[in-house]
TrEMBL record:
Pfam families: AhpC-TSA_2. Gene3D superfamilies: Glutaredoxin. This is Thioredoxin-like protein AAED1 isoform A. CDD domains: PRX_like2. It comes from the Eukaryota.
Length: 244
C-alpha cells in the first residue's frame, strides 16, 4: 500500500479543528444510487478516505473516456489502501447502470440531480478556460467526441443530455470524518485531475495507463503533485477552499 501524501485543504485540517461549514452542509445532502435509493453523502467518507469524482454529464465524451480509465483501477488497489472510489453525476439515476455498462466502470456511482453538491463545493459552470493541456485520459478530439456524444443522445432510451451540459466537475479526496485532503475544480471538459496524481495523494497504488516505462510514469506523477502544491486551488468564498 502506498503512503498517502498529506495535502490537506481547509479549516477542517488538523486535529480538533472545527468542521468546515461547506463540508457539514454537503454531508447532509442526499445522492441516489442506481436503484434510486437515497444515500447520505457524508456516509460515503465518514469511516474511511474516499476519492470522489464529479463528472460533467454522462453524455460528455471527455467524462466517458476519463471514467473508462477510472474503471481500469483494480478493486484490490483500493481495498489494500482502504479507500473508496466514487463517481457522482448529475443526471437521473436511471442513467447510472447504462453508463457503468458503457464504460465498464465497476466501482461506486451516484447522482446529484439537483446539483446541490456541485454548488456547495463551488464547481464551475461554462468553459472557463480553453487552453488546458490535452488530458492524458481523453483520446477523442472535440469533433469526433462531440459526434459520439450526439449519437449516444439520439440512440439512448431517453433523448436528453443526461445532466446540465454547462456544469463542470471536479475531484476531492475526503475523509475519514471531516478531513478534506485534496480539491480540484475542473475549468473545462479537459481539465480533469490526472488519475495517478489523485491515487498517489490518496495512498493508492498507481496504474500505468500508457505504454511508457514505469519510471517515466512516476516522474510525471511527481511533477503533477509538485505543480498542484505550487498552485493551490482557489474559490470565490468559503473556508473549505483555503489552504492551511
Amino acid at each position: 500500500m502506498a503512503a498517502p501524501v498529506r495535502q490537506q485543504v481547509g479549516a477542517g485540517a488538523g486535529a480538533g479543528a472545527e468542521e468546515p461549514a461547506e463540508l457539514r452542509a454537503a454531508a447532509w445532502c442526499l445522492v441516489q444510487g442506481a436503484d434510486g435509493g437515497p444515500v447520505r453523502f457524508g456516509a460515503l467518507f465518514r469511516a474511511r478516505r474516499a476519492i470522489v469524482v464529479f463528472v460533467r454529464h454522462f453524455l460528455c465524451y471527455a467524462c466517458k473516456e476519463y471514467v473508462e480509465d477510472l474503471a481500469k483501477i483494480p478493486k484490490d488497489f483500493l481495498q489494500d489502501a482502504n479507500v473508496r472510489l466514487i463517481v457522482i453525476g448529475q443526471s437521473s439515476y436511471h442513467h447510472i447502470k447504462p453508463f457503468c455498462n458503457l464504460t465498464r466502470y465497476p466501482h461506486e456511482m451516484y447522482v446529484d440531480p439537483d446539483l446541490a453538491l456541485y454548488k456547495i463545493f463551488g464547481m464551475k459552470r461554462g468553459e472557463a478556460a480553453t487552453t488546458s493541456a490535452q488530458s492524458p485520459h481523453v483520446k477523442s478530439n472535440l469533433l469526433s467526441g462531440s459526434i459520439k456524444s450526439i449519437w449516444r443522445a439520439m440512440t439512448s432510451p431517453a433523448f436528453d443530455f443526461q445532466g446540465d451540459p454547462a456544469q463542470q466537475g471536479g475531484t476531492l479526496i475526503l475523509g475519514p470524518g471531516s478531513e478534506v485532503n485534496f480539491l480540484h475544480l475542473d475549468k473545462n471538459r479537459l481539465d480533469h485531475a490526472p488519475i495517478n496524481t489523485v491515487l498517489q495523494l490518496a495512498g493508492v497504488k498507481t496504474v500505468n495507463f500508457t505504454n511508457k516505462p514505469q519510471e517515466e510514469v512516476f516522474e510525471e506523477i511527481a511533477l503533477c503533485i509538485r505543480s498542484s502544491r505550487a498552485a493551490p486551488p482557489k474559490a470565490s468564498s468559503g473556508r473549505l477552499f483555503h489552504w492551511s
